[in-house]
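Journal club prep — side note

Before the paper discussion, L.F. wants everyone to see what a predicted structure for a comparable chain looks like in token form. Sequence:
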Amino acid sequence: MSLRPRYPFTALVALVVAFALWYAVAGQRREKISERQAVVPLTLSNVPRDLVITNNVPESVSLRLRGALSRELNPSHPIEVVLDLSNAHPGVRTYPIKESEITLPPNVSVVAIDPPEIKLRIERLATKAVPVHPVTEGTPAPGYILAGVRAVPAVLGVQGPESVLKKLNAVETTPVSIEGAVTSVEAAVQVRLPHPLLRLTANTPILLMADIIPAPTPTPAPRRRQRRRPRRRK
């Protein structure tokens, strides 16, 4: 009876694969378990469209990791903390950071999280129509005056947190110089929004129009006629 395999090439391939698997498993057993501190980005996902977060949120979270870190931490697959806010409601709420919300590579666990929770202040988004106040700087040339200034459009829609919109009565434009002007001035301007969470509801071009006219000539006051004093009789 012959002990030679019927398909020697197939048997050789199987032997090589078996050796490779044994070497990989043995390598994992030989690799030491270590711990490492890592600062990873924080992402707030699935924020409802009608809500906005109004407080400052940390950009990153510090994690203490444990595992075969020399092999498992791959820059092409970064670790990230992802908080799901699909069930968020207006108000102040504290969200604990769980290990299940961290994208970890295999065979790596989390020992500690700093901060362990995130506090969020959430408000509803609202829209408000507010007047536009045009802003000019400087003065016309001698003999001319600023007869009027207006913005087109005169009213804009602004979107933002309800608490911020309640205090918003108007928005100002970027200033336009009328220094030394002898004719009317027209210029494209931008709107200055007083809060970083405010946005215009439409990308509408805005014009500032300043009417410069000759100063009216002052009318001389009429001369008063002097009354004659009656002569005294001698």
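L.F.'s comment for the group: The chain has two domains: 32-115, 125-214. Keep this in mind when we get to the figures.
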